[in-house]
Amino acid sequence: MIRRLPLPLLCAAALLGPAALAAQSGQFVVRLGNDTLAIEQYTRTADRLQGEQVVRSPRTVHRIYTASFGAGGALERFELVSHNVSGGPGPQESRSTVEFRGDSAIVTRPRGDGTLTERVKVGAGALPYINQGWGLVEEVARRARAAGGDHYTTAMLQLGNDEPWTVELSRVGSDSMTILLGPLGLLRMRVDDGGGSTMQVTVQRVQGLDFAGMGKAFAPRSLGSLSPGDSVKATVAGAAVAVRYSRPSARGRVIFGGVVPWNQVWRTGANAATVLETDADLIVAGTRLPAGKYSLWTIPAPSGWKLIVNRNTGQWGTDYDAQYDFARLDMKVEPLTRPVEQFTIAIEPRGKGGGVLALEWERTRASIPFSRK
After folding, report:
1. What are the C-alpha distances in Å from 52 to residues 49, 213, 259, 324, 338?
2. Neighbour tally for 114: CB within 10 Å
């Protein structure tokens, strides 16, 4: 399983240094490359954490959340109200609540035209998680700091999940921490900003943010799906070959050696693991690949790329397990004359019995030949 610490300019966090933890209010700007993905502001008092955020993907949503604490700082109730400010189909307002009782959370949330109430075992001290809700992540850091020591473990429950995420914080120096946030992976946080995880965003604490004005400006400017799913299909010498994957965009970032670190296993896209399916046996770069379904991974490196064909499928893109590797194959790498903004996979038939599987992003093309056996 991949548990990697990304380089700067990856996902997000909140200010976790001593100065940030002493603050009783804050504002965050969340960016994905050169796009502003979300804004947030919050106020923390002795018995309450109140915040609001505007998130622009897949549509623009305004959320207001309130966490109420009881004696000893234990979380007793969480309420989330969401407004669809960009219009379009679906409910224009929804409300979810979580009652924390002992080691359980009683979650009431929208489902279809009604509501669903369920009990989830979360363990004592758990907190809720909402998409891009970094005021709540900062609350975890407050608790870690109050507990003392270099390591702290707790849980966060994403509304709609029936299992909480394990959250592990570790101190790194005097002004930084890392946090392992469930399937989102490892984040690095320092005073005034943070980065890391598979979401590839950065979060910065700001002052004087015109929250209402920016929220209104974002209403008609949703970003849509950040890494939409796609598929490519081709028939090569009678063999039906297909690839299903997700397509992140560069958004002004350095991709290879930046967003995608060198010499590490990459999911080759975003979200769920990329899947190759063939109904006939293939020869890929000289290696026989039996008909079936496989996940595809890569190891980009300045000296050359490896394509990993893995027998395991259906997993999230951080859940790579080398024990299921079928083969690791060399790829041909060449520069592109024009940059490719959105990651693209292509199946290109060549000649009568063969083809090329090609990956293109930024200014790089990596490819590998195949043919029907």
Report:
1. 10, 14, 29, 44, 41
2. 6
Predicted pLDDT of residue 85? 87
Enter the pTM of the model: 0.83
Tell me, what's the pLDDT at 112? 84
Q: Quick one: which of 247, 153, 213, 184 has its CA closest to 2? A: 184
Number of other residues whose CB lies within 10 A of the CB of residue 295: 26
Q: For 33, left (φ over 0), alpha (ψ -120 to 50), or beta? A: left
191-201 as b/e: b if 16+ CB within 10 A: bbbbbbbbbbb
Alpha-carbon span 76 to 164, nearest angstrom: 17
Residues in the chain: 373
Report the helix count and the strand count for the chain, using DSSP H and E.
3, 24
Q: State whether the Cα torsion 206-3-131-253 is positive or negative.
A: positive
Q: What pLDDT is recorded for position 90?
A: 60
Q: Which residues of the chain have pLDDT under 50?
A: 1-23, 193-194, 196-197
Tokens (6 digits) for 204: 């910065």
Residues 55/57/59/60 CA torsion (nearest 10 deg): 20
Alpha helix stretches (DSSP H) within 99-210: 134-147
Given a contact cutoff of 8 angstroms between Cβ atoms, the answer to whether 93 and 82 are in contact is yes
Q: How much is the pLDDT for 16?
A: 38
Q: Does the CA dihedral 207-211-217-219 come out positive or negative?
A: positive
Contact 65, 130 (CB under 8 A): yes
- What percent of the chain is helix, strand and coil (3-state, nearest 5)? 10, 55, 35
